[in-house]
Amino acid sequence: MTSGEPAGADETRLYEIWGEIADLEAATELLEWDQETFMPAAGQEGRGKLLGTVAALIHRRLTSPELADVLARCAERARPGSLLAAQVARARHAVGRAVRVPESLSRAIAEAASAGVVAWKRAREAADFELFAPALRRLLDLRRQQAAAIGDGGPPYDAMLDGYEPGATEAQLTPLFDQLRRTLTPRVRAVVESGKTIDESPACGHFPAAAQEAFVRRVAAGIGFRFEAGRLDPATHPFCVGLNPGDVRLTWRLVEDDFRPALFGVLHEAGHGLYEQGLPAASSRTPIGAIASLGLHESQSRLWENHVGRSLGFWRWVLPTFRDHFPAAPRFTAAELWPALHTVKPSLIRVDADETTYNLHVVVRFELERALFAGELEVGDLPAAWDDLYQELLGIRPENVADGVLQDIHWSQGMFGYFPTYTLGTVIAAQLIAAAERQLGHLEELLAAGEASQLLGWLRRHVHRHGSRFEAAELVVRATGKPLAADDLLRYLDETIERAYGA
Predict the structure, then answer these.
(1) Mean pLDDT for the stretch of residues 378-394
(2) Which three-class secondary structure string do you get for 253-283?
(3) N or C: which end of the chain has fewer CB within 10 A?
(4) Which of 115, 150, 185 represents a domain boundary (last residue)?
(5) Can you give the pTM of this predicted structure?
(6) Parallel, antiparallel, or unpaired: how do β-strands 240-244 and 247-252 relate?
(7) Above 80 in pLDDT, residue 503?
């Protein structure tokens, strides 16, 4: 199927079984997409049961004796470094996690996550953490059970990280996050204490919803997102779902007095979508036909949102289109707008954070998750610990839990270990864009000429086409020539702050 050689009976059977698993996983994503877009509110309980049933079916297939036998025989046949060897390795990673977890626990996690979302929404609306605390305790307990079952004696948090970023460990990530904490906190403080401000008026005005939708669709298509293989729908919390390369669904939200949330939100989700649409068709529904990791996935969204969407070259290209859609908007040049796209302003809400402070929001969540899984922090103490870290890192303190510990949906779904992938993606994005510029030439000029396709082509060759044949860490080295490091990100942020603030 993907090796260039005739597939033997065992290899064919592996792909048949994995195709069923991939289909069930896609069905789960479709159900979750519908849950956040069009499902009636009264359907929540039934949807939770449905998701639990599908999770159990996936678990049964992953833990079936037949799959174990087929994998063993394929492993004997696979040559080191071959595509089949990669298929076997990727499948064994998923199977290895599943076989250690009882089906009853897998179902319980899925059902608790569905109930957790309901409790979180109610608690957030009431700004009352106690309405969510029991559900969070339940989810944390279940995930600790899962970590104990999966783990090999390392920190329980490692098992959570590995579920989203295969191979990642707490010991590996802690120095990176400590470096970002140590470097970014004083830089943000220095900008704030300088008293310098940026004129954001070019980005403000009246931007009608219909015009915004038409504009962001045009931009997404302009960078390569294929709407014949995707769609865009409103949602409270924007996200992207890739059912297969021919069915990739983006969601978005807007405010009518500032075009930036919608535009950068859609660029972000379209970056995810471009990755999903670029996965290798020949490997579809096989173990290596999916994304390599969530960190790598996030790198694609951050690259298009920040390094492309906030660049001067991009705005030289897109400004005429912007004026076509918003003829009554303030008149400005790309150079006049650029500083308003690079403000540094500590804020309470992660999804609204600027590109410099964003990673400090993630550091907060990383440190709290580590403490929860290490038994150093109780759920009841979480709001105060959250507030204290925001004060320490960003110099601000939430006035209520809705703007604090309850702002994200992730923990209500039991998604511990997910947050670090946001910062991993941000770091990878900076490293990828630096490598692309070395090979393609001055990207600002290419973007200004409307040649985003050249950057997309580079990403297709170096990232997308590999699927999950390689772990993210190896793929980064292959694409950029060096291991993952924060140097390119910190250099980019330094240069941006200097240019925007002169400081």
Answers:
(1) 98
(2) CCECCECHHHHHHHHHHHHHHHHHHCCCHHH
(3) C
(4) 150
(5) 0.94
(6) antiparallel
(7) no
Contact 27, 61 (CB under 8 A): no
| Least confident residue range of 46-60, 406-420, 461-475 | 46-60
Amino acid at 11: E
> Is residue 162 included in any domain, yes or no?
no
269 flagged as catalytic:
yes
In CATH, what number is assigned to the domain containing residue 488? 1.10.1370.30
How far apart, in whole angstroms, are the C-alpha atoms of residue 295 and residue 315?
27
Report the distance separating Cα 247 and Cα 285, nearest Å. 14
Distances (CA, A) of 140 to 173, 273, 353, 359: 21, 31, 27, 24
Q: Give the chain's domain count.
A: 2
Determine the Cα–Cα distance for residues 119 and 129; give it in Å rounded to an integer. 10
Domain that holds residue 258: 172-501
Do residues 276 and 334 both lie within one domain? yes
Examine the domain organization and report whether 98 and 129 are in the same domain. yes
Task: Please check whether residue 4 lies inside any domain of the structure.
Answer: no
Number of neighbours of residue 484 by Cβ within 10 angstroms: 17
Distance CA 235, CA 338 (A): 28
From 269, 298, 305, 367, active-site residue = 269
Indicate whether 155 belongs to any domain: no
Bridge partners of 252, per DSSP, are: 234
Residues 407-456 pLDDT 10s: 999 999 999 999 999 999 999 999 999 999 999 999 999 999 999 999 99
Give the tokens for residue 486: 């924060």
Contact call for residues 459 and 271 (beta carbons, < 8 A): no
**Do 176 and 31 share a structural domain?**
no
All residues at 6 or more sequence positions from 487 whose CB lies less than 8 Å from its CB, including other chains: none
The verdict on residue 299 lying in a domain is: yes
pLDDT of residue 2: 47
